[in-house]
Design a protein that fits this description.
The protein has 222 residues and is α/β, with parallel strands linked by helices. The protein has 6 helices and 9 strands; from the N terminus they run βαβαβαβαβαβαβββ.
Length: 222
């Protein structure tokens, strides 16, 4: 199938795109939603504008749609973006990085049904710890760019998802109910390299802001 990827630049959308390609689907374009609302129910917000550089190294066209990020209303903007991709690139399918969020998956499925598109969720219900291990195995270089749950703090920003990260985050699952893969919004990520990239990206500068257990790192990449 010819696929458009709902693309945030984080690990889930990147890995879902990779799995879709491995399954034999054609990656036709990327769709990124730039939300003004940092507390958006639907869309990843830290470093979202850097999807432009990721699209360049993936050599894929990027469709950008802006939204105020208001609950449910932002779905109208998403539908417009998907409809544009269908018209412009004649796609058959939307690829999502949904892992466990019924809220996200059900709403995207509803839009796809309306537009007569297939909806592919390659990560759905993956075991969280095994998922992180798969990312490492498949050579995904991923940085933490936001943390939003106790006991995560600014010291986690910039960390790479590697074996040490898994070793440090797994004990937090039982004690603090932290989702190991960040599916509950506990942390956000940015992919610096993966098999879909023609070259690796590097963080050349960053600015950290936040307080208590809500921190984000705005990055500049090259």
């Amino acid at each position: 199938m010819k696929c458009a990827v709902l693309f945030s630049g984080g690990k889930d959308s990147c890995y879902a795109a990779w799995l879709a390609k491995e399954q034999g689907h054609e990656l036709t374009c990327l769709i990124s939603i730039f939300s003004e609302n940092k507390e958006s129910y639907m869309f990843h917000t830290p470093s979202i504008e850097k999807t432009k550089q990721q699209a360049e190294v993936m050599e894929l066209p990027l469709l950008i749609t802006k939204t105020k990020g208001e609950k449910e209303e932002e779905l109208i903007d998403l539908e417009k973006a998907i409809a544009e991709a269908k018209e412009k690139y004649e796609i058959d399918c939307i690829v999502t990085g949904a892992l466990q969020s019924v809220y996200q998956a059900s709403r995207i499925q509803k839009i796809c049904d309306k537009l007569e598109l297939k909806c592919l969720n390659p990560l759905w219900q993956k075991d969280e710890s095994e998922y992180l291990k798969e990312l490492i195995r498949d050579n995904f270089k991923i940085a933490i760019v936001g943390v939003f749950a106790y006991p995560l703090d600014e010291s986690w920003l910039g960390r790479e998802i590697n074996e040490q990260f898994i070793e440090d985050v797994e004990p937090l699952k039982e004690k603090y109910k932290i989702h190991v893969a960040g599916e509950g919004g506990e942390f956000e990520t940015f992919v610096l390299n993966c098999p879909l990239f023609k070259k690796s990206l590097k963080i050349k500068d960053s600015k950290i802001s936040g307080e208590k257990n809500s921190w984000r790192m705005d990055i500049e990449v090259e």
